Protein backbone atom coordinates (compact mmCIF):
# COMPACT_ATOMS: atom_id res chain seq x y z
CA UNK A 1 0.00 0.00 0.00
CA UNK A 2 1.50 3.40 -0.95
CA UNK A 3 2.51 5.65 1.94
CA UNK A 4 -0.03 8.34 1.04
CA UNK A 5 -2.83 5.78 1.08
CA UNK A 6 -1.74 4.53 4.51
CA UNK A 7 -1.75 8.12 5.81
CA UNK A 8 -5.27 8.66 4.48
CA UNK A 9 -6.39 5.47 6.19
CA UNK A 10 -4.94 6.69 9.49
CA UNK A 11 -6.60 10.08 9.08
CA UNK A 12 -9.94 8.41 8.42
CA UNK A 13 -9.55 6.28 11.53
CA UNK A 14 -8.95 9.41 13.62
CA UNK A 15 -11.96 11.18 12.15
CA UNK A 16 -14.17 8.14 12.72
CA UNK A 17 -12.93 7.95 16.31
CA UNK A 18 -13.97 11.57 16.83
CA UNK A 19 -17.32 10.84 15.23
CA UNK A 20 -17.74 7.82 17.46
CA UNK A 21 -17.06 9.87 20.60
CA UNK A 22 -19.61 12.48 19.61
CA UNK A 23 -22.00 9.71 18.61
CA UNK A 24 -21.81 8.06 22.02
CA UNK A 25 -22.53 11.35 23.76
CA UNK A 26 -25.48 12.06 21.51
CA UNK A 27 -26.82 8.55 22.00
CA UNK A 28 -27.02 9.20 25.73
CA UNK A 29 -29.27 12.17 25.04
CA UNK A 30 -31.83 10.24 23.02
CA UNK A 31 -31.65 6.91 24.78
CA UNK A 32 -31.09 3.43 23.41
CA UNK A 33 -32.24 2.57 19.90
CA UNK A 34 -35.87 1.57 19.71
CA UNK A 35 -37.73 -0.59 17.25
CA UNK A 36 -38.23 1.16 13.93
CA UNK A 37 -41.46 2.97 13.09
CA UNK A 38 -44.21 1.25 11.15
CA UNK A 39 -42.93 1.58 7.59
CA UNK A 40 -46.42 2.19 6.24
CA UNK A 41 -46.18 5.68 7.75
CA UNK A 42 -43.58 6.47 5.09
CA UNK A 43 -45.85 5.29 2.25
CA UNK A 44 -47.77 8.28 0.88
CA UNK A 45 -51.45 7.93 0.03
CA UNK A 46 -52.13 7.47 -3.67
CA UNK A 47 -53.23 9.76 -5.10
CA UNK A 48 -51.88 12.52 -2.90
CA UNK A 49 -54.61 14.47 -1.15
CA UNK A 50 -55.57 17.93 -2.32
CA UNK A 51 -53.90 20.69 -0.37
CA UNK A 52 -51.36 23.48 -0.32
CA UNK A 53 -47.59 23.26 -0.03
CA UNK A 54 -46.77 22.47 3.60
CA UNK A 55 -50.11 20.88 4.47
CA UNK A 56 -49.74 17.92 6.83
CA UNK A 57 -50.85 14.63 5.26
CA UNK A 58 -50.45 12.58 8.45
CA UNK A 59 -48.62 12.55 11.74
CA UNK A 60 -47.74 10.24 14.62
CA UNK A 61 -45.97 10.63 17.96
CA UNK A 62 -42.21 10.27 17.82
CA UNK A 63 -39.61 10.61 20.58
CA UNK A 64 -36.85 12.98 21.57
CA UNK A 65 -35.39 13.62 24.99
CA UNK A 66 -36.95 16.51 26.96
CA UNK A 67 -39.25 17.45 24.11
CA UNK A 68 -42.51 16.59 22.39
CA UNK A 69 -41.70 15.10 19.00
CA UNK A 70 -44.13 14.40 16.17
CA UNK A 71 -43.28 12.59 12.96
CA UNK A 72 -45.02 14.19 9.99
CA UNK A 73 -45.66 13.69 6.29
CA UNK A 74 -46.38 16.88 4.38
CA UNK A 75 -46.92 18.18 0.85
CA UNK A 76 -44.09 19.81 -1.05
CA UNK A 77 -42.65 20.12 -4.58
CA UNK A 78 -39.76 18.49 -6.41
CA UNK A 79 -37.29 20.18 -8.79
CA UNK A 80 -39.85 20.05 -11.61
CA UNK A 81 -42.55 21.58 -9.37
CA UNK A 82 -44.40 18.27 -9.14
CA UNK A 83 -46.32 17.63 -5.91
CA UNK A 84 -44.57 15.15 -3.61
CA UNK A 85 -44.92 13.81 -0.08
CA UNK A 86 -42.02 14.43 2.31
CA UNK A 87 -41.45 13.26 5.88
CA UNK A 88 -39.79 14.96 8.83
CA UNK A 89 -40.16 15.75 12.51
CA UNK A 90 -41.53 18.67 14.53
CA UNK A 91 -39.83 18.89 17.94
CA UNK A 92 -41.01 21.27 20.65
CA UNK A 93 -38.81 21.48 23.77
CA UNK A 94 -40.31 20.98 27.22
CA UNK A 95 -38.36 24.08 28.18
CA UNK A 96 -40.50 27.22 28.21
CA UNK A 97 -39.73 29.97 25.72
CA UNK A 98 -38.24 32.90 27.64
CA UNK A 99 -37.61 35.25 24.75
CA UNK A 100 -39.77 38.03 23.32
CA UNK A 101 -42.92 37.16 21.41
CA UNK A 102 -44.05 33.63 20.55
CA UNK A 103 -41.73 30.63 20.43
CA UNK A 104 -39.72 30.62 17.18
CA UNK A 105 -39.54 27.63 14.86
CA UNK A 106 -36.26 26.81 13.08
CA UNK A 107 -36.12 24.62 9.99
CA UNK A 108 -33.24 22.20 10.45
CA UNK A 109 -31.86 21.05 7.10
CA UNK A 110 -29.90 17.87 7.88
CA UNK A 111 -26.37 17.25 6.64
CA UNK A 112 -25.65 14.16 4.52
CA UNK A 113 -27.46 11.22 6.10
CA UNK A 114 -27.10 8.86 3.16
CA UNK A 115 -29.34 7.54 0.41
CA UNK A 116 -31.01 4.52 1.99
CA UNK A 117 -34.45 4.96 3.55
CA UNK A 118 -33.09 3.63 6.84
CA UNK A 119 -30.93 6.77 7.02
CA UNK A 120 -33.87 9.21 7.15
CA UNK A 121 -33.21 11.70 9.99
CA UNK A 122 -36.81 11.44 11.23
CA UNK A 123 -35.94 7.83 12.09
CA UNK A 124 -32.42 8.25 13.43
CA UNK A 125 -33.20 11.34 15.53
CA UNK A 126 -35.79 9.24 17.34
CA UNK A 127 -33.26 6.47 17.98
CA UNK A 128 -34.95 4.24 15.44
CA UNK A 129 -33.73 2.38 12.37
CA UNK A 130 -30.14 1.54 11.48
CA UNK A 131 -28.36 4.70 10.48
CA UNK A 132 -24.67 5.08 11.26
CA UNK A 133 -22.51 6.99 13.72
CA UNK A 134 -22.61 10.14 11.60
CA UNK A 135 -26.37 10.28 12.18
CA UNK A 136 -25.81 11.18 15.82
CA UNK A 137 -24.21 14.46 14.73
CA UNK A 138 -27.74 15.49 13.67
CA UNK A 139 -28.70 15.47 17.35
CA UNK A 140 -25.93 17.97 18.11
CA UNK A 141 -27.55 20.53 15.81
CA UNK A 142 -31.07 19.84 17.05
CA UNK A 143 -29.97 20.04 20.69
CA UNK A 144 -28.33 23.42 20.13
CA UNK A 145 -31.65 24.79 18.86
CA UNK A 146 -33.82 23.16 21.52
CA UNK A 147 -31.42 24.46 24.18
CA UNK A 148 -32.34 28.01 23.17
CA UNK A 149 -36.02 27.20 23.51
CA UNK A 150 -36.68 27.10 19.76
CA UNK A 151 -38.95 24.50 18.20
CA UNK A 152 -37.35 22.48 15.41
CA UNK A 153 -38.91 21.52 12.07
CA UNK A 154 -36.66 18.88 10.50
CA UNK A 155 -37.09 17.67 6.92
CA UNK A 156 -36.02 14.33 5.48
CA UNK A 157 -35.88 15.96 2.00
CA UNK A 158 -37.30 14.28 -1.08
CA UNK A 159 -36.89 10.50 -1.23
CA UNK A 160 -35.40 9.76 2.20
CA UNK A 161 -37.80 7.44 4.00
CA UNK A 162 -40.44 7.99 1.32
CA UNK A 163 -40.45 6.05 -1.98
CA UNK A 164 -38.05 7.05 -4.73
CA UNK A 165 -34.46 8.23 -4.63
CA UNK A 166 -33.14 11.11 -2.55
CA UNK A 167 -32.68 14.31 -4.59
CA UNK A 168 -29.29 14.89 -2.99
CA UNK A 169 -28.05 18.54 -3.09
CA UNK A 170 -30.62 19.47 -5.74
CA UNK A 171 -31.29 23.19 -5.13
CA UNK A 172 -34.98 23.49 -6.00
CA UNK A 173 -36.13 20.28 -4.34
CA UNK A 174 -34.23 20.94 -1.12
CA UNK A 175 -35.36 24.58 -0.94
CA UNK A 176 -38.99 23.53 -1.31
CA UNK A 177 -38.82 20.78 1.30
CA UNK A 178 -37.05 23.02 3.84
CA UNK A 179 -39.52 25.88 3.43
CA UNK A 180 -42.55 23.59 3.44
CA UNK A 181 -41.52 21.89 6.69
CA UNK A 182 -41.83 25.31 8.34
CA UNK A 183 -45.36 25.62 6.99
CA UNK A 184 -46.11 22.09 8.20
CA UNK A 185 -44.88 22.92 11.71
CA UNK A 186 -47.13 25.97 11.82
CA UNK A 187 -50.15 23.94 10.69
CA UNK A 188 -49.60 20.85 12.85
CA UNK A 189 -52.30 20.71 15.57
CA UNK A 190 -51.47 20.25 19.23
CA UNK A 191 -48.01 21.79 19.31
CA UNK A 192 -48.85 25.17 20.82
CA UNK A 193 -46.81 26.81 18.07
CA UNK A 194 -48.09 30.01 16.45
CA UNK A 195 -49.42 29.83 12.90
CA UNK A 196 -47.62 32.99 11.86
CA UNK A 197 -44.71 33.32 14.30
CA UNK A 198 -41.00 34.03 13.80
CA UNK A 199 -38.99 31.49 11.81
CA UNK A 200 -35.36 30.63 11.10
CA UNK A 201 -33.36 28.25 8.92
CA UNK A 202 -30.18 26.35 9.77
CA UNK A 203 -28.08 23.73 8.01
CA UNK A 204 -24.53 22.44 7.57
CA UNK A 205 -22.88 20.62 4.64
CA UNK A 206 -25.74 19.21 2.52
CA UNK A 207 -27.94 21.03 5.01
CA UNK A 208 -25.95 24.20 4.43
CA UNK A 209 -26.88 23.90 0.78
CA UNK A 210 -30.50 23.20 1.65
CA UNK A 211 -30.63 26.16 4.04
CA UNK A 212 -28.94 28.47 1.53
CA UNK A 213 -31.25 27.36 -1.28
CA UNK A 214 -34.28 27.93 0.93
CA UNK A 215 -33.00 31.36 1.96
CA UNK A 216 -32.64 32.60 -1.60
CA UNK A 217 -35.92 31.11 -2.85
CA UNK A 218 -38.09 32.04 0.14
CA UNK A 219 -39.30 35.35 -1.28
CA UNK A 220 -40.62 33.68 -4.45
CA UNK A 221 -41.72 30.28 -3.14
CA UNK A 222 -42.83 31.10 0.41
CA UNK A 223 -43.42 34.85 0.84
CA UNK A 224 -45.94 34.05 3.60
CA UNK A 225 -43.20 32.91 5.99
CA UNK A 226 -41.73 35.39 8.50
CA UNK A 227 -38.12 34.22 8.33
CA UNK A 228 -35.83 36.28 10.57
CA UNK A 229 -32.53 34.75 9.52
CA UNK A 230 -30.83 31.82 7.80
CA UNK A 231 -27.53 30.10 8.66
CA UNK A 232 -25.59 28.15 6.02
CA UNK A 233 -22.47 26.25 7.08
CA UNK A 234 -20.08 24.58 4.62
CA UNK A 235 -22.59 24.90 1.79
CA UNK A 236 -21.89 22.94 -1.43
CA UNK A 237 -22.77 25.95 -3.57
CA UNK A 238 -20.91 25.19 -6.81
CA UNK A 239 -21.36 21.59 -7.95
CA UNK A 240 -18.97 21.96 -10.89
CA UNK A 241 -16.06 22.75 -8.57
CA UNK A 242 -17.07 19.99 -6.17
CA UNK A 243 -16.98 17.42 -8.97
CA UNK A 244 -13.23 18.10 -9.25
CA UNK A 245 -12.37 18.47 -5.57
CA UNK A 246 -14.25 15.35 -4.40
CA UNK A 247 -13.06 13.06 -7.17
CA UNK A 248 -10.57 10.48 -5.93
CA UNK A 249 -10.64 11.80 -2.39
CA UNK A 250 -11.86 10.68 1.00
CA UNK A 251 -15.41 11.93 0.36
CA UNK A 252 -15.84 10.84 -3.25
CA UNK A 253 -19.04 9.06 -2.15
CA UNK A 254 -20.68 12.48 -1.97
CA UNK A 255 -19.97 12.94 -5.67
CA UNK A 256 -21.70 9.63 -6.31
CA UNK A 257 -24.63 10.77 -4.20
CA UNK A 258 -24.85 13.99 -6.24
CA UNK A 259 -25.03 11.99 -9.46
CA UNK A 260 -27.90 9.98 -8.00
CA UNK A 261 -29.51 13.30 -7.10
CA UNK A 262 -29.19 14.49 -10.69
CA UNK A 263 -30.62 11.20 -11.95
CA UNK A 264 -33.57 11.66 -9.57
CA UNK A 265 -34.39 15.29 -10.37
CA UNK A 266 -33.41 15.19 -14.06
CA UNK A 267 -34.08 11.64 -15.29
CA UNK A 268 -34.04 12.93 -18.86
CA UNK A 269 -30.28 13.50 -18.48
CA UNK A 270 -29.71 9.75 -18.68
CA UNK A 271 -26.69 10.16 -16.44
CA UNK A 272 -26.53 6.50 -15.44
CA UNK A 273 -27.43 4.98 -18.80
CA UNK A 274 -25.25 7.28 -20.91
CA UNK A 275 -22.17 7.80 -18.73
CA UNK A 276 -21.68 4.83 -16.43
CA UNK A 277 -19.86 1.63 -17.35
CA UNK A 278 -20.82 -1.66 -15.69
CA UNK A 279 -18.70 -0.88 -12.62
CA UNK A 280 -20.31 2.55 -12.37
CA UNK A 281 -23.81 1.10 -12.61
CA UNK A 282 -23.01 -1.42 -9.88
CA UNK A 283 -21.71 1.38 -7.66
CA UNK A 284 -24.88 3.40 -8.25
CA UNK A 285 -27.04 0.47 -7.20
CA UNK A 286 -25.01 -0.19 -4.06
CA UNK A 287 -24.70 3.47 -3.06
CA UNK A 288 -28.47 3.92 -3.13
CA UNK A 289 -28.70 1.74 -0.01
CA UNK A 290 -25.92 3.28 2.07
CA UNK A 291 -25.74 5.76 4.94
CA UNK A 292 -22.91 8.28 5.24
CA UNK A 293 -20.07 6.43 6.97
CA UNK A 294 -20.71 3.22 5.05
CA UNK A 295 -20.48 5.11 1.77
CA UNK A 296 -17.36 7.05 2.76
CA UNK A 297 -15.46 3.93 3.84
CA UNK A 298 -16.63 1.85 0.86
CA UNK A 299 -15.79 4.28 -1.93
CA UNK A 300 -13.00 6.55 -0.64
CA UNK A 301 -10.26 7.36 -3.16
CA UNK A 302 -12.27 5.98 -6.10
CA UNK A 303 -11.52 7.82 -9.34
CA UNK A 304 -14.69 8.60 -11.27
CA UNK A 305 -12.82 7.95 -14.53
CA UNK A 306 -12.92 4.23 -13.63
CA UNK A 307 -16.73 4.38 -13.60
CA UNK A 308 -17.44 6.01 -16.98
CA UNK A 309 -17.75 4.40 -20.40
CA UNK A 310 -15.05 6.52 -22.04
CA UNK A 311 -12.69 6.83 -19.07
CA UNK A 312 -13.20 10.56 -18.57
CA UNK A 313 -13.80 11.94 -15.06
CA UNK A 314 -17.29 13.18 -14.20
CA UNK A 315 -16.09 16.79 -14.16
CA UNK A 316 -15.30 16.57 -17.89
CA UNK A 317 -18.98 16.10 -18.70
CA UNK A 318 -20.36 19.02 -16.71
CA UNK A 319 -19.64 21.73 -19.26
CA UNK A 320 -21.53 19.94 -22.02
CA UNK A 321 -25.25 19.44 -22.65
CA UNK A 322 -27.40 18.52 -20.85
CA UNK A 323 -25.29 18.69 -17.71
CA UNK A 324 -24.16 22.30 -18.13
CA UNK A 325 -27.71 23.58 -17.67
CA UNK A 326 -28.34 21.25 -14.73
CA UNK A 327 -25.18 22.41 -12.97
CA UNK A 328 -26.10 26.05 -13.61
CA UNK A 329 -29.62 25.59 -12.23
CA UNK A 330 -28.21 24.01 -9.07
CA UNK A 331 -25.59 26.65 -8.35
CA UNK A 332 -26.54 28.46 -5.14
CA UNK A 333 -26.09 32.22 -5.03
CA UNK A 334 -28.36 33.17 -7.92
CA UNK A 335 -30.94 35.16 -5.96
CA UNK A 336 -30.92 37.67 -3.12
CA UNK A 337 -32.11 36.28 0.24
CA UNK A 338 -34.87 38.40 1.72
CA UNK A 339 -33.62 37.85 5.28
CA UNK A 340 -30.21 38.28 6.98
CA UNK A 341 -27.87 35.36 6.26
CA UNK A 342 -24.74 34.05 7.97
CA UNK A 343 -22.37 31.88 5.94
CA UNK A 344 -19.56 29.99 7.69
CA UNK A 345 -16.88 27.71 6.31
CA UNK A 346 -13.73 26.11 7.74
CA UNK A 347 -10.58 27.26 5.96
CA UNK A 348 -9.18 23.72 5.76
CA UNK A 349 -12.47 21.98 4.99
CA UNK A 350 -11.49 18.64 3.48
CA UNK A 351 -14.87 17.84 1.90
CA UNK A 352 -16.32 21.09 0.54
CA UNK A 353 -13.62 23.62 -0.36
CA UNK A 354 -13.59 26.90 1.57
CA UNK A 355 -14.07 28.95 -1.60
CA UNK A 356 -17.57 27.47 -2.02
CA UNK A 357 -18.82 29.23 1.10
CA UNK A 358 -16.85 32.42 0.58
CA UNK A 359 -18.02 32.83 -3.02
CA UNK A 360 -21.62 32.15 -2.00
CA UNK A 361 -21.48 35.02 0.49
CA UNK A 362 -19.84 37.26 -2.13
CA UNK A 363 -22.57 36.41 -4.64
CA UNK A 364 -25.25 37.34 -2.14
CA UNK A 365 -23.45 40.55 -1.22
CA UNK A 366 -23.29 41.52 -4.90
CA UNK A 367 -27.08 41.23 -5.02
CA UNK A 368 -27.52 43.55 -2.04
CA UNK A 369 -28.26 40.94 0.62
CA UNK A 370 -27.64 41.43 4.33
CA UNK A 371 -24.89 38.82 4.42
CA UNK A 372 -22.07 37.96 6.78
CA UNK A 373 -19.20 35.55 6.16
CA UNK A 374 -17.08 34.02 8.92
CA UNK A 375 -14.25 31.53 9.04
CA UNK A 376 -15.52 28.49 10.90
CA UNK A 377 -13.22 27.11 13.56
CA UNK A 378 -12.41 23.42 13.23
CA UNK A 379 -10.69 22.04 16.31
CA UNK A 380 -8.26 20.04 14.21
CA UNK A 381 -7.13 20.17 10.57
CA UNK A 382 -7.76 16.43 10.40
CA UNK A 383 -11.36 15.93 9.33
CA UNK A 384 -11.97 19.69 9.36
CA UNK A 385 -15.34 19.30 7.64
CA UNK A 386 -16.69 16.98 10.34
CA UNK A 387 -15.03 18.88 13.17
CA UNK A 388 -16.37 22.19 11.88
CA UNK A 389 -19.86 20.90 12.55
CA UNK A 390 -19.21 21.07 16.30
CA UNK A 391 -18.57 24.83 16.10
CA UNK A 392 -21.32 25.42 13.57
CA UNK A 393 -24.12 24.05 15.74
CA UNK A 394 -23.51 26.54 18.55
CA UNK A 395 -22.70 29.44 16.26
CA UNK A 396 -25.93 29.00 14.34
CA UNK A 397 -28.10 28.80 17.45
CA UNK A 398 -26.49 31.89 18.99
CA UNK A 399 -26.79 33.92 15.79
CA UNK A 400 -30.44 32.95 15.31
CA UNK A 401 -31.16 33.80 18.95
CA UNK A 402 -29.96 37.35 18.27
CA UNK A 403 -32.24 37.61 15.25
CA UNK A 404 -35.24 36.48 17.28
CA UNK A 405 -34.30 38.97 20.00
CA UNK A 406 -34.57 41.75 17.44
CA UNK A 407 -30.87 42.57 17.34
CA UNK A 408 -29.76 43.95 13.96
CA UNK A 409 -27.64 41.66 11.82
CA UNK A 410 -24.13 42.88 11.15
CA UNK A 411 -23.20 42.16 7.58
CA UNK A 412 -19.58 42.35 6.45
CA UNK A 413 -19.94 42.60 2.68
CA UNK A 414 -16.80 44.01 1.10
CA UNK A 415 -14.64 42.94 4.03
CA UNK A 416 -13.83 39.35 3.14
Automatic annotation (TrEMBL):
The keyword Signal applies. Gene3D superfamilies: 1.10.260.130, alpha/beta hydrolase. The keyword Lyase does not apply. Keywords: Signal. InterPro entries: AB_hydrolase_fold (IPR029058), Lipase_secreted (IPR005152). Residues 1-35 form the signal peptide. This is Lipase family protein.
Amino acid sequence: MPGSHRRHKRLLARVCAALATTGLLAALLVGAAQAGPAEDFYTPPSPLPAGANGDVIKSQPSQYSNAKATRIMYLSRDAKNKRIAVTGTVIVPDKAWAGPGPRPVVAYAPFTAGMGDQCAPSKTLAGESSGDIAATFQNTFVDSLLGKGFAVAQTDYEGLGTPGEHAYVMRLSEAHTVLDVLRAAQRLPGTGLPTDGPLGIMGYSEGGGGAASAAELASSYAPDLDIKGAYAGAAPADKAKLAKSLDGGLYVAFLGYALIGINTSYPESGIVENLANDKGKQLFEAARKTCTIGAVTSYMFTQSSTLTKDGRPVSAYLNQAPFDKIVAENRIGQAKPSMPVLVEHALLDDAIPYENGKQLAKDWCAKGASAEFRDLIAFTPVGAHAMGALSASGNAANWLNDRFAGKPATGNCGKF
